[in-house]
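User: My advisor asked me to double-check a structure prediction for Transcriptional regulator, TetR family before group meeting. I don't want to rely on an old file, so could you generate it fresh from this sequence?
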Amino acid sequence: MTIHATTLESPQLPLKMLILDAARKLFAEHGYAQVSMRKLATTIGYSPTTIYHHFKDKKELFLCLTEETYREFLQAINEILSVSKSPKAALKNILHTFVTMGLQNPNAYRVGFMMETDLWNAKNSHFEHNPLGKTMYDRINSCVKKCMPPGSSEEDILVTSNSVIAAAHGLTALLVTYPNFEWGPVEKLKRQVIDSAVDAIV
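Assistant: Sure, here is a fresh prediction for Transcriptional regulator, TetR family from the sequence you gave:
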């Protein structure tokens, strides 16, 4: 995940990228509800009107950030699927990559996968504003399906897919939230959590 890791002081930084970088940091540190366009404008030293030239509202700005994160991860998934020799090897690699990319860019991970917002509610699909996220999820789901016996029910595929995603996401969220906890060797921990979850698929 090569999410921009730029500094706010750089005069060469394009304004839209400056806005996105500052917004990602603010969302990750304060949560969606506590961030306003005015607060963002103050952070980067511009007027709110300047930000509205690039994004019509906070929702569009937030969705732009999530889309950027999902696009990066979807690209990684597609590359893994194109070279993997077996569905289980591909699935393990995808989930390991998921954790690695989250640790490399914790703010992007918080915004993309850990943020509570009012964008998803009981009336809307979680993927309504999130087509790249849906494609990403479907790729993993399809890979899980190939790991399972022929004739497996859609319910079993769904539960199995969500269980391995939960293993990877749960581990990533813990590592991102408590980076100084004594986890032991992270690569060994990833293998223990992810490989065990994938190898349990029968």
